[in-house]
Amino acid sequence: AAEKPSVDIVGDWQHRYCSLADTFQPVLDRVHNFEVREDDVWIVTSTKCGTTWTQEMTWLILNNFDFEKAKTDDLTIRSPFLEFNGVVPNVPHDTIEALNKLPSPRLIKSHLPAWLLPKQVWTKKPKIIYVFRNPKDAAISYFHHWRGMVGYKGTKEDFMHSYIDGHVNFNPFWPHVLDFWQLRDEPQIFFTSYERMKRDLGGVIKDVCKFLEREVEPEQLTQLVDHLSFDKMKDNPACNHVKEFESMKAAAGREVEEFSRFVRRGIVGSHKDEMPQTAIQEFDDWTEDNLKDYQLTMDDFINYS
Ligand code: A3P
Hints:
Blueprint: H1 28-32, E1 41-45, H2 51-62, H3 67-72, H4 75-78, H5 95-101, E2 107-110, H6 121-124, E3 127-132, H7 135-150, H8 156-164, H9 173-182, E4 189-193, H10 194-199, H11 201-212, H12 218-227, H13 230-234, H14 242-251, H15 271-274, H16 277-291, H17 298-302
Parallel strand pairs: 1-2, 1-3, 3-4
Helix pairs in contact: 2-11, 8-16
This protein binds adenosine-3'-5'-diphosphate (A3P).
Adenosine-3'-5'-diphosphate binds next to α2, α7 and α13.
């Protein structure tokens, strides 16, 4: 059962819903009762919004820019994915147990909507970084993820409808975003966007340092921007999820497909040449429908800083 946090949330906290595959469901009770620490740092996102990129950035900020350790220890170990418990075949991984053993400050990834996060998140108030991305680009990215990693056989059009209807893991998208948007001025929350990270990664790093009360020297900033560049991350096996991707593909006996890397294109606007025109119109209408009661447009999220 979901509990209302001690902060105001848009809508009715008790009547939210979230699509989750069977594989995630056995872990929900443990997630609900997960022991949160005040000095945890959480990266919470809807899927394919730049989670991995933000995790790598934040881990380095929290760990005194230890680039050596970042290159040798896999990001999934440095920053476990809370609810991803035993989901990847051949990689048995009790993420909750791993998190219980991780020294502070822990960096925790979750795709759960606000109301499904552990109840102590709203009483112990650890810091949360929330990353928005244009859902048209996130949906295209998720389509490739589902084809490559999950073995989805449907068409792009089918997938886009499922996305809009909220029938893919962790959706519906807009309530996920709007709950955190409403919380953006809380001292506990840092709200940013993938588009802002593409526009001004240095500025985001400096703001995250302020949010986390960490110092960054100019050389460290330069080094971190370079380390986080698309080309470097694409070829960095410690954070490009290549092992999980390969293991899921091998388990399903699938061939490698074009664009089926996890760190894939890394651009703003991939929907423009990848999304069917009818789906673009459907996404725009759906966005307008979801935002009109709040007098918001997509640009409010994309340009927020
Ligand atoms: P694309 O599929 O559009 O390329 P997540 O980590 O939330 O699953 O997000 C994955 C998306 O972030 C992918 O988007 C991936 O390429 C992109 N990404 C990962 N690292 C990046 C980087 N260093 N720069 C830009 N985009 C990056």
